[in-house]
Design goal:
229 residues; 0% helix; 14-stranded antiparallel β-sheet; 3 domains; 3-stranded antiparallel β-sheet; mainly beta
């Protein structure tokens, strides 16, 4: 059975179905509201209010994209989920998600239209439910291709990142545990903040031998200085 959800010329959503792709049922309106955007999007949800399908249509019988969601675990908190991305006829890709007991995504696997795995990402969290590491596996490889690391201050702000190339980035925020945590080439503290009202300032490693201090105040101009570590 083929089912199409589309936006009619009167801006309302309709559903039609066909068993052979040639003969279609009469349109039936499925939503009381008119479409608000172009292309239009409509969602279906299951009894647990989880999205079971998303339909994106540009016009009548022109279904641009469908995302179908299935879940393991008959509850509001699922243990895993699968997403299939397709148009009206062809599957383009799919994703599989694994969740822990707190509903956090621990694993995401992406497959192409042939069902071949193209990527796997493993997420690791801290006690504040923040991602501290993403391990990325290319294809079906059992070896980590690269990873990204994150660190946070006591307010949950990102205070540290390490990208796949190994470049490390350090960030400092006023009125937090990460404020003024940097030293210069003489091991003297670098005063990043002149007053507590400055919302955000950051320090970024530009090369192994220098750092760049970026100062930003909301509604004011930006300043920057560099020094040697």
């Amino acid at each position: 059975m083929l089912v199409l959800i589309y936006r009619g010329t009167n801006e309302y959503f309709y559903r039609i179905s066909s068993s052979n792709g040639t003969t279609w049922s009469s349109p039936s309106q499925i939503a009381p509201q008119k479409a608000y955007s172009d292309p239009s999007t409509v969602f279906r949800k299951d009894v647990f209010y989880r999205v079971s399908a998303q339909y994106v249509s540009a016009s009548e019988l022109d279904l641009v994209k469908v995302m179908e969601f299935s879940y393991e675990g008959e509850d509001y908190l699922s243990s895993s989920s699968d997403v299939i991305i397709r148009d009206s006829q062809t599957v383009h890709s799919s994703m599989h998600f694994e969740f822990d007991s707190e509903g956090r995504t621990t694993e995401r696997i992406t497959r192409d239209e042939q069902g071949i795995q193209t990527e796997k990402i493993i997420h690791t969290y801290n006690n504040q439910n923040k991602v501290i590491q993403q391990d990325v596996y290319a294809g079906n490889s059992q070896q980590i291709s690269y990873n990204v690391t994150f660190g946070y201050d006591n307010w949950g702000n990102t205070a540290y990142t390490k990208d796949p190339e190994g470049a490390e980035h350090f960030y400092s925020y006023s009125n937090s545990s990460s404020a003024n945590q940097f030293t210069d080439s003489k091991e003297l503290p670098v005063n990043l903040f002149s007053n507590a009202s400055t919302p955000i300032q950051s320090l970024r490693i530009a090369t192994p031998y220098s750092w760049e201090k970026l100062s930003a105040t909301m509604g004011r101009s930006k300043k920057s200085t560099t020094d040697t570590i």
